[in-house]
Design goal:
The chain has about 250 residues and is α+β, with helices and mostly antiparallel strands. The chain has helices at about 10-15, 20-25, 45-50, 85-90, 115-140, 170-185, 190-195, and strands at about 1-5, 30-35, 55-60, 70-75, 80, 95-100, 105-110, 145-150, 185-190, 200-205, 215, 220-225, 230-235, 250. The strands form 3 sheets. Strands 3-4-2-1-14-13 form a 6-stranded mixed beta sheet. A 6-stranded mixed beta sheet has the order 5-6-7-8-12-9. Strands 10-11 form a two-stranded antiparallel sheet.
Length: about 250
Amino acid sequence: MRIISYNVNGIRAAIAKGFLDWMKQANPDVICLQEIKATEDQIPTEAITAAGYPYQYYFSAQKKGYSGVAILSKIKPNNVVFGTEIPHMDFEGRNLRADFDDISVMSLYLPSGTNLDRLDHKFKYMDDFQSYINELKKAIPNLVICGDYNICHEAIDIHDPIRNATVSGFLPEERAWLDKFMKSGFIDSFRHFNKEPHNYSWWSYRAGARGNNKGWRIDYNLVSENLKDRMSRAVILPEAKHSDHCPILVEIN
């Protein structure tokens, strides 16, 4: 199974930049999208079906033009779960899960901490998400959580760890949470295969950051430890430029 995660920063804008043609060439079995910023009636679902993805699931935020996640699949899932049933997590459309025969794939868009109120919300979300996943794993042990976590795990994952040490996304408390989350039973699939620096998945639109590769790696395909021997490849795909993020891929046998 080829699984891609991609924060498209607006699915309609990404489509206007050639996203559907790119998706056909990349040919994932399942693609998890974050920040779709649209409701299903605003999305060209027929064009997505024509691109090879007849199974489409959208979980939009209550606020128009904001947040939202989606899963597009070539394979019909056995079950789809919209949200977590935790209200403060679900009103912004941040969790969507598709269950297949022996693997479940989640699209996650973890909040950013742009100001103090949002940072408090982010930490509450992270704590409740950890508890939610701890319970979920009891029923669904083969889990792949794809998405934008809005956190760089280690210094190797950010272009300037010194200057960004007090910026949300690289705060010690955020990094400690992500480290603990991974150690609760998940593998950072990209780092499992690649230990090299200067690999990022998001770049600011300012100051030519992408051209100079001054980025952050905040997008992850985290794979349950019991799927470790079934992973065959995990890569970042920076050549795709439909967003300020780029897609990330994991292949699981």
